[in-house]
UniProtKB/TrEMBL annotation:
Keyword line: Membrane, Transmembrane, Transmembrane helix
Spans through the membrane: 49-69
Name the UniProt record assigns to this protein: Uncharacterized protein
Amino acid sequence: MPRMISFMLTRLATGFAIGCVVGLLVWQNGFLPFGSAAGEFQNYIAQGLFIYLFASTISMGYLATALLLEAE
């Protein structure tokens, strides 16, 4: 695999993993109202979408920062 593609995939995957962890922590600590049932299907969909959107945003930022800082 060419170096640039490997570089991009590694940075995107790392940023996505960081974003998933942070998104899960933010969801669990800040967005779960006390009156809602935690087992409802809509809550799982909302949580999954929130974590995905959080992770995809952080992964693109991580890649952009890595491209800026690791220019050879």
